[in-house]
């Protein structure tokens, strides 16, 4: 519950530190960091159209005023504000309910997500450093690759600032779910809008594990279909990078996935509990600290980790070593090892 203005003034006069809190769930603020980029612009468009978003704060190092002006001409509920450069980052994220981070450089042909590490690791570290001070209660959704490493980076920064809450930090793996559902529907002639395929593990290569055995509606796959479908889902990002021939990576599908996940977080804040796959700190799989599974979202972020029970256990086991390598790389980056 918010303090009345008189109490806030009294607290400030007495030198008490006022810790930023999230807004009321009736007026959700979503901050989009990297709003001028290839993912950020279409993601901003989708968030502007989300009827649950009351305030959309756009942040980037360049071009934010133009993007904000463009989006503000759309006749939807969300108020749009523009914030440019490090000096305006604090205002962008202050009191945000949800912070979505697609900031960073995209992949080019021949690059893996891990090749982005050196540049994107520093971007995420610096953004989260400000978030820790200005919006410690926000739900943070990280899209910036390599997600398997950038989420641990964010966690370590939040820990250093004494505000880490594992329920409030997410790696967005929704694109893997979206792709799996599209590919399965295409292959089997299903209605894509009614096809559900959970995806667990991480967000790169063999760590992406589609649980085809749990597809809804119940679907039988031949061994040959599984052998073709699984690597296609795992390498779908590279498929887009190569098709764009140096002009970018998956931006439109990622924007849709990011908006879908942000909407799920806002619905959770408002008390509409729902289940999504996300990469979070978890004990769902033995021997690895972060893992994507279906999680129940609610007012505090992760309300419940639903875990993994599947016929794909061999794929899960094979992903652990790769995930641990990615996680350790992120932790070491923050700790300076």
UniProtKB/TrEMBL annotation:
A Pfam entry, by short name: Ldh_1_N
Lactate/malate dehydrogenase C-terminal domain ranges (all copies): 173-334
Keyword match 4Fe-4S: no
Record has Translocase as a keyword: no
Reaction catalysed by this enzyme: (S)-malate + NAD(+) = oxaloacetate + NADH + H(+)
Classification via InterPro entries: L-lactate/malate_DH, Lactate/malate_DH_C, Lactate/malate_DH_N, Lactate_DH/Glyco_Ohase_4_C, Malate_DH_AS, Malate_DH_type1, NAD(P)-bd_dom_sf
Gene Ontology annotations for the cellular component aspect, listed alphabetically: mitochondrion
Superkingdom, taxonomy of origin: Eukaryota
Binding residues for NAD(+): 34-40, 60, 120, 143-145, 254
UniProt enzyme class: oxidoreductase
GO biological process: malate metabolic process; tricarboxylic acid cycle
Active site location: 203
Domain Lactate/malate dehydrogenase N-terminal: 29-171
Keyword list, A-Z: NAD, Oxidoreductase, Tricarboxylic acid cycle
EC number(s) on file: 1.1.1.37
Xref: CDD domains: MDH_glyoxysomal_mitochondrial
One MF annotation (Gene Ontology) recorded for this entry: L-malate dehydrogenase (NAD+) activity
List of residues binding substrate: 107, 113, 145, 179
Family recorded in the similarity comment: Belongs to the LDH/MDH superfamily. MDH type 1 family.
Subunit structure: Homodimer.
Listed name of the protein: Malate dehydrogenase
Organism: Caenorhabditis auriculariae
């Amino acid at each position: 519950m918010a303090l009345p203005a008189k109490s806030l003034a009294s607290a400030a006069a007495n030198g008490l530190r006022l810790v930023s809190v999230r807004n009321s769930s009736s007026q959700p603020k979503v901050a989009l960091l990297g709003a001028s980029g290839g993912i950020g612009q279409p993601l901003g468009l989708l968030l502007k159209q989300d009827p649950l978003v009351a305030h959309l704060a756009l942040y980037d190092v360049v071009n934010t005023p133009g993007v904000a002006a463009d989006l503000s001409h759309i006749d939807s509920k969300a108020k749009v504000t523009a914030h440019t450069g490090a000096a305006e980052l604090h205002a962008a994220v202050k009191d945000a309910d949800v912070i979505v981070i697609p900031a960073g450089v995209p992949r080019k042909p021949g690059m893996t997500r891990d090749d982005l590490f050196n540049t994107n690791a520093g971007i995420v570290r610096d953004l989260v450093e400000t978030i820790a001070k200005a919006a410690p209660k926000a739900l943070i959704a990280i899209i910036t690759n390599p997600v398997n490493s950038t989420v641990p980076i964010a966690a370590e920064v939040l820990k250093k600032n004494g505000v880490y809450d594992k329920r409030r930090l997410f790696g967005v793996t929704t694109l893997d779910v979206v792709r799996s559902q599209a590919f399965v529907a295409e292959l089997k002639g299903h209605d894509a809008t009614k096809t559900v395929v959970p995806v667990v593990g991480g967000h790169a290569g063999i760590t992406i594990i589609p649980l085809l055995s749990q597809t809804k509606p119940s679907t039988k796959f031949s061994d040959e279909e599984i052998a073709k479908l699984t690597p296609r889902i795992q390498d779908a990002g590279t498929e887009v990078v190569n098709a764009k021939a140096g002009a970018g990576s998956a931006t439109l599908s990622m924007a849709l996935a990011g908006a879908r996940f942000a909407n799920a977080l806002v619905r959770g804040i408002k008390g509409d509990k729902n289940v999504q796959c996300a990469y979070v700190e978890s004990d769902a799989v033995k021997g690895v600290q972060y893992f994507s599974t279906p999680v129940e979202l609610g007012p505090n972020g992760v309300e419940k980790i639903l875990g993994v029970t599947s016929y794909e256990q061999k794929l899960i086991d094979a992903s652990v070593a790769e995930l641990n390598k990615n996680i350790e790389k992120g932790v070491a980056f923050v700790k300076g090892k």
